Amino acid sequence: MSDIKKCDGYVLHKSRRRMLKGLAAGIGLIALPGRDASALVWEEFFQKHFRELSKDELKGVIARLEKDYSKQYGKQVTVKTTPPIEGVRYGYGLDLSRCIGCRRCVYACVKENNQSRTPQIQWIRVLQLNKEKGIDLSEAEHYYNPATVPEKGHFYMPVQCQQCEKPPCTKVCPVQATWKENDGIVVVDYNWCIGCRYCMAACPYGARHFNWAKPSVPSNEINPNTHYLGNRPRPKGVVEKCTFCIQRTREQPGRYPACEEICPVGARKFGNLLDPESEIRYLIENKRVFIFKEELNTQPKFYYFYAT
Amino acid sequence: MKNIWHFYKGTLVLISKGSTAYYCWVLFLLILMAIGGFAYSRQLNEGLIVTNMRDQVSWGFYISNFTFLVGVAAAAVLLVIPAYVYHWKPIKEIAVLGELLAVSAIVMCLMFVTVDIGRPDRFWHLIPKVGLLNFPQSLLAWDVVVLNTYLMINLTVAVFILYNRYYKREPNKAFTTPLLLLSIPSAISIHTVTAFLYNGLGARPFWNSSILVPRFLASAFCSGPAFMILIFFLVRKYTKFKIEDEAIQKVAEIIAYAIFINLLLLGAELFKEYYTDTIHLASFQYLFQGLHGYSALVPWIWTAMIFNVTAFILFLNPATRRNNVTLVMGCILVFIGVYIEKGMGLVIPGFIPDVLHEIYEYAPSGIELLLSMGIWATGLFVFTMLLRVAIPIMNGDFHVADDGVGSFIGDQLFLVQQPDTVNPESEPVA
After folding, report:
1. What is the ipTM of this complex?
2. Kind of pairing, strands A90-95 and A268-272?
3. Which of B8, B58, B153, B369 could form a disulfide with A197 if both were Cys (CB 3.0 to 4.6 A apart)?
4. Which of A119, A196, A203 sits opposite B140 (nearest CB)?
5. Residues ≥6 apart with Cβ < 8 Å to A39
6. For residue A205, which residues of chain B lie inside 8 Å, CB to CB?
7. How far from the centroid of its chain's Cα atoms is residue B250's Cα?
8. Complete edge-to-edge strand list for the sheet that includes strand A268-272
9. Are residues A119 and A109 part of one domain?
């Protein structure tokens, strides 16, 4: 019984989609300049939501994207769709007593995740704070630029996506273009996002960034090892964010996120919250830990701590 | 079916006829629309980078206009209630103008949202079943639903009534009454949902206040009816449509209450923020005093305050309320006052300081201004066209001809200055 129902729903869904296709094609023919009106453009236009794609459809989408990106950047670009690993929930630790504010994490992230260079997009923001005032955001300096860091009397607090357990950003998205995966990573389908930026208004951490113009990454700087939900090249007009380097951390054997790997003072820790033996679990259980804007009940999986 | 086609053809003939003033006005709007279209094509080409919005202030002038216009649209209900719930005749005759204003305002709302999104080509993702509308989780999904519902209700009712009048029939009450009654909660819903859109964000303390919805409603009942009264005066002066002073006065009274409630709620909010003086005060400080040397909105909000208070006095005092000159002044003042307060004054301080307390000061770019101007022109164009058809129908100057096929057009000019004294016996121009 339920099967029949499902089947009916599917047929209805499909025929509606086909009808829309016809309608939009008609409108599109008038609206779009001829040179762009290739089959590929239509394929992209009608691409379903990532989680609604069948295996075969997904294959087709990935092949199209890889071909497209490889051509655009003049080298082989791969797009993975590696799913979450069973029994893994990622957590991040940041040792405020160690961070020196060098911003190496910021630039390693830009390089690894193919953020636009012009206009500039950075997923990590390092705040320079006054030791006497403590964590008082209204005293934070965002664009500090001395010859050497750390500066006397200051400490540093990097902020990036906190991969909330209760993300306010995914709740508000009108088209479900962003969601939390089973390993806790909040991702965006860049081919589904309509660019309304409601998620940016909802995020308490300034973790979401918009492609105000067509993003540009020089061909020789592109990282060709990409993930569909992570660091693949983004189109104009969509929102993007930190994914804990999903293209690295979901591999087996996995690699650390680029920001964790580059940190010269070991202030950044990363691991599996479900593994009682992991370093991140040790830190949470034994150090002085806090989460950012705890009162908002977003339940971040990004833990600030003081090791010393 | 045939009748609908004849009616439609008739309206096309009708809107192509008019006085020189009518042609000039329409031409003027078309030019502004073309400029807006040009601005939009540039924005589509280069992306939203042509605006002054950035990650820190991710919504700007477009969404401010959208928010304000939702209020204007909701206000049509203030004519529907006295007309169809209390069957008050002087307003019943003009209620259709309110519905048409609502339609035009919603059209503008939808356009402002469309130009604000980064990927308008993916609009179909919002269509339930075809795309993936995040209902009921996302308040924006709710807004899509209620705005379109409200548009459909008003359009259907207004067109149905006018269509029947055209064919000299009494509109079927069994059809219109439920829709009209439905339009009342639906008007309140568009405003409530739009307020909730901001209200539900814990990240933005400036919006995260329980009285945001009542504040929205109160200000809507100022700006919308004020615009309505201005339209009444214009319609009375430049067309043959009769609007009684009594009806205008009724609406003006409602505005007086609404301004009072609006000011009271704003005061309550200001007291709470300033007296408790938490870090959440920062946005109010930015708006009313300036913060760390940034004060772009300060002159605007004080202008709005002065306008709203002056308008309140003008509406409150019976002598100035009954005097048409001061009444019009009051309407203009409160319209501009609410436009500032519920537009930029509501949206921008939500982002300043931003969630990490960075201050990025925003003012709309040239493209944003031109494009917004184009959308306002489009809204006024839609409203003009609707009135061009509705007013002659209501006057009995546009109806089916005696042969039952063609149409009789008694009003070839539409926009003509009427004699100052209300003269009910002016002859239709043949």
Report:
1. 0.92
2. antiparallel
3. B58
4. A196
5. none
6. 355-356
7. 20
8. A268-272, A90-95, A302-306, A288-290
9. yes
Same domain? For A202 and A258 the reply is yes
Cα A72 → chain centroid? 22
Domain range holding A130?
A: 77-308
- Nearest chain A Cα distance for residue B357, angstroms: 5
One domain for residues A90 and A205: yes
Query: Per residue in B188-208, pLDDT tens?
Result: 999 999 999 999 999 999 999
User: Does the distance separating the beta carbons of B55 and A210 come in below 8 Å?
Assistant: yes
Q: Is this model's pTM higher than 0.80 or not?
A: yes
Q: Using the 8-state DSSP alphabet, how is residue A251 labeled?
A: S
Per the structure, how many domains does chain B have?
Answer: 1
Closest CA to B394 of B265, B242, B252: B242
Tell me whether A37 touches chain B (CB under 8 Å): no
Cα four-point dihedral sign A213, A217, A218, A224: negative
| A188 residue type, one letter | V
Give me the residues paired with residue A94 across strands. A268, A304
Is residue B423 situated within a structural domain? no
Which candidate from A13, A197, A205 shows the least CB-CB separation from B129?
A: A13
Q: How many domains does chain A have?
A: 2
Q: How far apart are CA B346 and CA B55, in angstroms?
A: 18
For residue B95, give the nearest of B218, B247, B220, B258 by alpha carbon: B247
- B77: in domain: yes
- Mark the ranges of chain B whose per-residue pLDDT is less than 50: 422-430
Three-point CA angle B328, B331, B334, nearest 5°: 150
Distance (Å, whole) CA B120 – CA B49: 15
* A290 in the same domain as A145: yes
Domain contains B1: no
Contacts with B358 from chain A: Cβ below 8 Å: 140, 142, 206
Q: Is B53 close to A238, i.e. CB distance below 8 A?
A: no
* Cβ atoms A93, A283 nearer than 8 A: yes
In 10 A of CB B179, how many CB atoms?
Answer: 15
Q: Is the peptide bond before B353 cis (omega within 30 degrees of 0)?
A: yes
Task: Provide the chain A residues 198-257 that lie in CB contact (below 8 A) with chain B.
Answer: 198, 200-206, 208-214, 235-239
Can you give the residue range of the structural domain that contains B40? Answer: 19-400
Residue ending a domain, among A54, A76, A98, is A76
Cβ contacts (< 8 Å) between B203 and chain A: which residues? 168, 201-204, 296
Q: Which of A175, A198, A212 is closest, CB to CB, to B54? A: A212
Which of A76, A107, A141 is where one domain is finished? A76
Same domain, A98 and A244: yes
A237:B116 CB<8 A? no
Distance CA(B296)–CA(B316), nearest Å, equals: 32
- Residue B114 maps to which CATH number? 1.20.1630.10
A41/A120 same-domain check: no
Query: Which helix (DSSP H) or strand (DSSP E) does residue A130 occupy?
Result: strand A125-130
A98 and A43 share one domain = no
pLDDT (average), residues A282-296: 96
Residue A10, CB half-sphere, CA atoms under 13 Å: how many? 8
pLDDT tens profile B219-264: 999 999 999 999 999 999 999 898 999 999 999 999 999 999 999 9
Provide the CATH number for the domain around residue A148.
3.30.70.20
B415 within some domain? no
Going from the C-alpha of A57 to that of each of A14, A15, A52, B17, B187, the distances in angstroms are 14, 17, 9, 55, 43
